[in-house]
Design brief:
Layout lengths: L4 H9 L2 H11 L3 H9 L6 H14 L2 H8 L13 H6 L8 H18 L12 H11 L4 H25 L2
Helix pairs in contact: 2-3, 3-4, 4-9, 5-9, 7-8
């Protein structure tokens, strides 16, 4: 990772409303954004990532739903959204049968849990994401909520790293 030492300083000095907007681009949970912002100033990357972990651990079920609302369905990245398309690069050029299977498995998951299937898709193939979706479908709601919390933390870590590494 490239180190842009002033990025943390710039974020720490950003006014509250602007910082909230920046953080909501990372994670769409207002409670998460407020908790991460309240942890500033962050002394280094690890401190910011620790603020992410602590904020994720404190989210309620409703807060997790807010966070998931900012994510596209697996297999259907939001058109024109560079973040969504980059994070789901593993579905590009995939056979239509795999995309159809993802669509069907997503629908079954959403019917059961009432929200999108969430997984840190970075570096994963479409087949791997489909396998994870099928593997997690039998979970109970409480188990799945904790898995989602962990996946969101990983996604946020990646997004925060990208934010810090941006020139």
């Amino acid at each position: 990772m490239t180190n842009h030492p002033h990025t943390l300083d710039i974020l720490a000095a950003t006014d509250a409303a602007a910082l909230e907007g920046i953080l909501l681009e990372v994670c769409s949970s207002p409670r998460w954004a407020a908790a991460v912002a309240a942890a500033r100033p962050w002394s280094d990357r690890d401190t910011l990532l620790a603020a992410n972990a602590a904020a994720m651990a404190s989210l309620t079920t409703e807060d997790l739903r807010d966070a998931m609302a900012g994510h596209a369905r697996i297999g259907r990245p939001t058109a024109g959204d560079a973040v969504s398309e980059r994070e789901q690069a593993g579905i590009q050029g995939v056979d239509q049968a795999v995309l159809d299977a993802l669509r069907e498995a997503n629908a079954a998951y959403e019917a059961k849990f009432g929200h999108v299937f969430l997984i840190c898709a970075t570096g994963r193939t479409a087949v791997g994401m489909l396998a994870a979706l099928r593997e997690r479908h039998p979970n109970d709601a409480a188990t799945e909520a904790e898995i989602v919390r962990g996946e969101l933390r990983k996604i946020n870590d990646i997004r925060l790293d990208r934010l810090l590494d941006a020139p």
